[in-house]
Write a structure and sequence with these properties.
13 helices, Four Helix Bundle (Hemerythrin (Met), subunit A), about 375 residues, mainly alpha
């Protein structure tokens, strides 16, 4: 029976069943698409939700900023209101326009008075400085006259007069012509006056004093030539025994044929000290006379010093002989100066100062005419 089965039935039993597998594949693909769509919708929803949250936060932040700006604006408005109130109070406290004009006029008048006062103060101060300088010039002239009369110091007096002339020249005043003329005459008289070097002479006398304090008396000495006995032995006995005896005796025995001349005693000890002191005092007196221009005292002192040297020291002493020669040279030195008189210059300076003071007094008493002009310029 199995063989009798028709061939048509056997293929039907062995063939696959496609109709059952196709619906399963379609179901799986449609399920994946739905899941993908669901995911996309979920992501989109999340994104939309996040964007909404961000927008909400931004709105909140902007709202807070606007609130802060509003508070700041309100504070500024309050400050402006306070300033406006203070300005209003200040404006209310200000005087009216008429009073302001009056005050302005008074201020301008005060400025004009202050300028006038400054000008007067400058004039007074300038005049005071000029007075001080002129008083200084007069003092310099008096000092120059004093140095001429007391010390006969030509160099110092010339410098003082020249300084006084420079002070008067700095005044730049035509009225000072007379005083400058007298100052020029005095200055030329000083420049043409012989001016001995009394300082150098003082120093030279001081050096001579030092030399005089070192002077020593010359001890007597004899030449060992045998004297008369030596000559007799040489002429009569030649070189014998007797000639030697006479030569030896000639060293102890002297025959002086000029015994009538005075023999100076030998200075020693206290006597030499007194002679040195007398010589030093005489030279010191000569120094004082040289500085003060006392010719009589100067010559008397040097003459006394020369007498001390001549009376107490031998002419054979080279130190005393040189000192005596130097004293003889200095005794004829000219030390006296005929100083010019500065009285005319001092009187001219006094007259000029009095003239300046009287002119200044007249200027103070004169009416001041520039005050109204100053007020008009200010108005």
């Amino acid at each position: 029976m199995s063989e009798a089965t028709s061939p048509k039935e056997q293929p039907v039993q062995d063939a696959p069943k496609p109709t059952t597998k196709a619906p399963e594949r379609a179901k799986s693909s449609s399920g994946n698409g739905l899941a993908l769509i669901a995911l996309l919708l979920g992501a989109t929803g999340i994104a939309i939700g996040g964007w909404g949250v961000w927008q909400l936060r931004m709105l909140q932040t902007n709202e807070q900023q606007q609130v802060a700006q509003l508070e700041q604006t309100q504070a500024q408005a309050a400050a402006l209101s306070q300033q406006a109130k203070s300005l209003d109070s200040r404006l209310q406290s200000l005087p009216p326009p008429d009073e302001l004009d009056e005050r302005r006029r008074l201020v301008l008048q005060l400025q004009g008075d202050q300028q006038l006062l400054n000008k007067r103060l400058e004039t007074v101060l300038g005049a005071s400085r000029q007075e001080w300088r002129l008083a200084e010039a007069e003092h310099l002239l008096r000092l120059a006259s004093l140095r001429l009369s007391a010390l006969q110091d030509i160099n110092s007096a010339t410098a003082l007069v020249r300084t006084a002339d420079e002070i008067v020249r700095d005044q730049d005043d035509p009225a000072a012509y007379a005083v400058r003329e007298q100052l020029a005459k005095s200055l030329e008289a000083l420049l043409t006056t012989p001016n001995p070097d009394r300082t150098g002479l003082f120093l030279q006398l001081g050096a001579l004093r030092d030399q005089g304090m070192q002077l020593n008396a010359l001890n007597p000495s004899f030449k060992d030539d045998g004297g008369v006995l030596g000559q007799l032995a040489e002429e009569n006995y030649g070189e014998g025994w007797w000639a030697g005896v006479l030569q030896t005796a000639g060293q102890y025995v002297r025959l002086d044929f000029n015994a009538d001349q005075n023999i100076r005693p030998l200075l020693a000890g206290q006597s030499l000290t007194q002679v040195r002191l007398a010589l030093s005092l005489a030279l010191e007196q000569a120094q004082w006379a040289a500085l003060h221009g006392q010719t009589a005292v100067y010559k008397q002192a040097l003459t006394q010093a020369a007498d001390v040297l001549d009376g107490n020291f031998n002419k054979d002493n080279p130190s005393s002989r040189a000192l005596r020669a130097r004293v003889g040279e200095l005794i004829d030195q000219s030390i006296e100066v005929k100083a010019p008189d500065l009285t005319n210059s001092i009187n001219a300076m006094q007259a000029y100062i009095e003239q300046k003071q009287s002119a200044r007094e007249r200027l103070k008493d004169a009416p001041v005419a520039d005050k109204p002009a100053t007020e008009e310029a200010a108005q």
